[in-house]
Structures are given as structure tokens and as C-alpha cells.
Amino acid sequence: MNPQQYSSTNKIADTRYLKYQFYTETIEVSRMSALAFFEAGEKQHKGKRMFWQNREKTFTMVGLGHAHILEALNPHGRFEEVKSEWQSLCRQIVNEEPDVQPILFGGFSFDPLNKTQSVWTNFPQAYFAVPAFQLVIKDDRAYVSIHLVTKKTESFNDFEALRKERDRLIHAAQVSELKKYEKPLVTKRTEIKKDDYLASIRKVTEVIKAKQAEKVVISRALKLDFAKPLSAASALYQASEEQPESFLFGLEAGSQFFFGATPERLVKVKDRQALSTCLAGSIPRGRTVERDTQLGEELLSDKKNRSEHQYVVSMISKVFGAHSTHVSVPKTPKLMKIRDIQHLYTPVEGELMPGSTLLDLVRDLHPTPALGGEPKQEALSLIRQYETMNRGYYAAPVGWIDAKGNGEFAVAIRSALLNETEAYLYAGGGIVEDSTPEAEYDETWVKFRPMLRALGGQLSDES
Ligand SMILES: C=C(O[C@H]1C=CC=C(C(=O)O)[C@@H]1O)C(=O)O
């Protein structure tokens, strides 16, 4: 393997994790396709893989296998559990300042108190893992790290075995020709509880008119059945082909794979600078430049959409005010134009206060009124009462944090849960006083489009 200029070995241990040893070793490798590395883990690491690429395509991470899993069981303290366990595991890194930090990747469910029956059988309320093999591509350089978290005092042989497997994975990813996957063949497309969804919008609008809440996001699901099982690599390939200007993420939990191409950043922290994105308020793209511009201007001056958006800006600004200084919030939103849809968009920035961390921001931001509503608790209880499904990880935070506390979480919308021969797609929208079921229903079709296209959502008899 060439070049291999960079190599370091670190050992992590602390009182809480005293029984564990956390070894890492990183090498720099020739650039390779992240998807090919993901694919290289198809046999040995299936069910334990992760994928992340930021919107700007400047940072890509692929994880294969689990060196350590963090699952939170306490519905009220899951963010704290993940934060303190990760800090415990990281606290005693004997660190030679490696270019690449060990990464913890995963996500949270949308609402652990939602008791509606769920298809998310393999996903606990919080599910994070330190990958055994971690590929990071940043600033045009690629690094592969091995992580070993073990209770054994003698782990030389285990580490040697990991080195062998690492070299095999790198070789396979570098020499294999990246497959051009065929679009999957969809045999059936089912709108789940469509009438109940329409009724729920009517009901929630009434509740909002009665002043029990100001905004509530209601969503629905669409199910696709495939002629044969669809692989996680194929699903990621299709999503990246169809939706290039989004965060691309994938998280395997045994036979289930949650993936998506979302435009929405929840929060990013780099060197204590925090950045969030308020994204709410939508209109389709126009077929011509003129129509597209006209629609964009309509969105910017639309009272209903601006009010939907403002709830998100106010909430995110408030959370940033509690955790950061030098908070900057533009006064008016801009347009974010992506392939199928235009959104109102406002970036919020700040400098983290001492003691505040990325996971504190994730805990306090989730769910923003772009996915929950306003006020937060009333909106969550209305979602529990009226939404026709359990969201699982849809609309929840998915992302990564490294051993230095840097990282990024996206809001897992424009996403789907793949269950071998079937997939559940999710989409929703903000309901305010003057929302109508028909317009909301139409908007969900626009939001389904990225995943529908990726998964070949047209029935075989549709053109
Ligand atoms: C709930 C979704 O989108 C949210 C994000 C952006 C715009 C939204 C809207 O205009 O309603 C939603 O709040 C979804 O895509 O499923």
C-alpha cells in the first residue's frame, strides 16, 4: 500500500472505561472511492456499516464493523448518555495529534416517547458506533484508521488481524471497478394511511386555530416493494447519483439500512465554531428560469411560509444564545434551491461557550420547529396523538462526533428505511393555521421525489 507516510498508535483508558483499552492506528492511503470502500465491507461487515458525506463534499467518512457500540436506553437522558460515554472513552487518549481523530457515528430516534407501532425494529432510541475500520477523505487526502476497544490486556494478535483485514479492504476498494448499479425494480407502491394523514392535517389545523399550538409538522410514509433485495451500497449509489447537493448518510443496523440525502444541517462544530441551518418553507422548482425565479420570489414574500420559517429561526437563535457567544443571524432568509424544491434558509452561527458541546446543541435543538413545531412539547404531543406512524429515525439527528468534540449532525429528512425487499419513505410539512390538507399532500410528493427517484419509485407500468 502506498503512500503510508502517516502512522500513529494511541491508547485510551479512563476510570469509567478502565476495563477497556482503546487502540487506534491511522495510515494515509491513496485516494479511493468511498462507496467502493463501503462495498468492500459487503461480506465481512454487512449490518455494521456507516456512510457520511457533507453537503460541500469536503468531508467523507465510511465506517466498517463495530469497535464499540453506544446504545442509549434511557428515553429522557439519551443525549447525555451518549455524550458522557463518548467523553469517558476519549478522555485519556495518549495523542500524538493525529490528522484523523476516532469518530463516533450514529443517530437518535425522533421521539422515544412515541408508542406507535414501529417498523424500526433494529434501531434503539440512540445507536452509535466507533467503526473498526474508518475511512476519512478530507482536503483531498484519504486516511484509514483501525480502532480496537477491548477488555483484553494482551491484544497484539487481535490488532495484527485487524491490520490484515484493513489491508484487504483497502486493496479491494482500490482495485475493484465501482459497480454501476441498476435502478431497483419496484413491484408495488403503497401510500400508508393516506386518508388518516389527510384527516390528521384537518385536525391539527383546528387545534392550531384553537391556539393549543402555533405550528406542528405532520408527516406520512410511502412503502415500496422491490422485485429482489436491494443492497445498502446500491441504495447509497442511487441516492448520490440523484441528489448531489445534499448530505449523504447511511446507517446499517443488521438487515435494516437507514439512508438519505438531506439538505438540512442540524448543527456543525469545528474548533468551537458552531453553525446551524434554519430550513423551513418550501415551493417547487420552476420548469423555466423565469418560472423558477418567480416561484422563489413568491416563496420569499409568502406570509405563511415566512411565519413557518420564523419559528425555526427564533428557536435556533435562542438555543445558540444559551450555548454560544457572538451569535449571528441574518435578518432575512435566502433561498436554498435543490433539485426538486426551493426552501427558505437562514444560517445561524456562534462560538461555543466553555462547557457547551456539540451534543448539548443537538439535544437542545432537536427537534427544531422545522420537524417538530412550536411550542416544542405541545407539538410533540400532537404528533404522538395525530400522526399515523412512528417516525423512527426520520427527521431526527444523524451524524458524527470525533474525539476532540468536532463533528456534524444533519436532520434525517429526504430519507428511507430499507428493509431488504421493501423501503419506507418519509415526508412531512409544517402545519400552521391556514394550511390545507390538499396543499400539504402535494408538498409531500415533492419531498418524496429524491428518494422515489433513487429507488426507482415509478411502478414498472408507469413511464
Ligand atoms: C419535514 C420535511 O421538511 C422540513 C424541512 C424543510 C422544509 C419544510 C417545510 O417547508 O415544511 C419542513 O419543515 C421533510 O422533508 O419531510
UniProtKB/TrEMBL annotation:
Its EC number is 5.4.4.2. Residues 194-447 form the Chorismate-utilising enzyme C-terminal domain. Keywords: Isomerase. Pfam families: Chorismate_bind. InterPro entries: ADC_synthase, Anth_synth_I-like, Chorismate_C, IsoChor_synthase. Signal peptide: none annotated. It is an enzyme of class 5 (isomerase). It comes from Planococcus chinensis. This is isochorismate synthase. Belongs to the isochorismate synthase family. The lineage of its organism: Bacteria, Bacillati, Bacillota, Bacilli, Bacillales.
